[in-house]
Amino acid sequence: MKYKDIQKELKKQLKPSRYGHTLGVVETALDLAEIYGCDANKARYAALLHDCAKYMSAEEKIDLCRKYGVPINNVELENPSLLHAKCGAILAKHHYGIDDEEILHAIAVHTTGEPDMNLLDEIIFVSDYIEPGRETAPNLYTLRKMAKTDLDKTTYRILSDTVSYLNNRRNQAMDPTTLKAYQYYKDKVDDKK
User: Fold this and answer.
1) Is 181 in contact with 115 (CB distance < 8 Å)?
2) C-alpha separations of 115 from 47, 70, 170 in Å
3) What are the two backbone dihedrals, phi and then psi, of residue 27, each rounded to the nearest 5 degrees?
4) Rounded to whole angstroms, what are the CA distances from 124 to 12, 77, 103?
5) Exposure string (b/e) for 145-156, b if CB count within 10 Å is 16 or more?
6) Model confidence, pTM
7) Which of 28, 56, 101, 184 gives 20 to 30 Å between its CA and that of 95?
8) Alpha carbons 190 and 21: distance in angstroms, whole number
9) If we measure between CA atoms, which residue out of 87, 128, 103, 111 comes closest to residue 1?
């Protein structure tokens, strides 16, 4: 599908606030792609489609992952909302016709992150967190400024804030991939010092 066609379909499928968030992620991803020399077209498509599976039911997400052989861990089974990233990659490929593995991977890891993300992965991960419409996440002003100069450090800070937030919630399990990503980026940022 062409970009404009995907955009029209998502505008119908997503709640207005989610669609606004999506456009903010596209805008931010394009800005970061320009700063860091990433393929703007890939950033645009990954950002546009990153939340395309957001409103699937828990059962639909689990069924879709199983249908396409995408592994589901215990935390995801307990909290299927985490599966929207993996399901988004599945829909991007099988419904929207995206066959670029880099775009699909960036969509799949935009929620949990993972160790050693590539440039596009980091851009989508960071853009999702700092887009202009987001107001409630901690340290947004600092992160928005930092994202323009050090993507690894920004990724680490977002992961650090996420781990801290999840550790302070009693009944909120943490995806093991997020913890691994946090440790990887902590070590990477420490090595730069």
Assistant:
1) yes
2) 20, 19, 25
3) -60, -45
4) 22, 24, 10
5) ebbeeebebbbb
6) 0.95
7) 28
8) 32
9) 103
Cα dihedral: 108, 41, 132, 114 (round 10): 30
Q: How far apart are CA 54 and CA 83, in angstroms?
A: 9
Give me the phi and psi of 146, to 5 degrees please: -65, -35
Read off the tokens for 176. 């093991």
Rounded to whole angstroms, how far apart are CA atoms 148 and 143?
9
Neighbours of 78 (CB within 10 A): 11
> How long, in residues, is the chain?
193
Number of H helices, E strands in the chain: 11, 0
The span from the CA of 13 to the CA of 183, in Å, is 36
* Residue position matching structure tokens 């010092």: 193
pLDDT tens-place string over residues 137-186 = 888 999 999 999 999 999 999 999 999 988 887 667 789 999 999 999 99
Model confidence over 97-133: pLDDT tens digits?
999 999 999 999 999 999 999 999 999 999 999 999 9
Name the DSSP class of 171. T
Q: Kindly state the tokens that stand for 63.
A: 């069924």
CA–CA gap between residue 84 and residue 32 (Å, rounded): 23
- Comparing CA positions, the residue from 174, 160, 167, 99 lying closest to residue 129 is 160
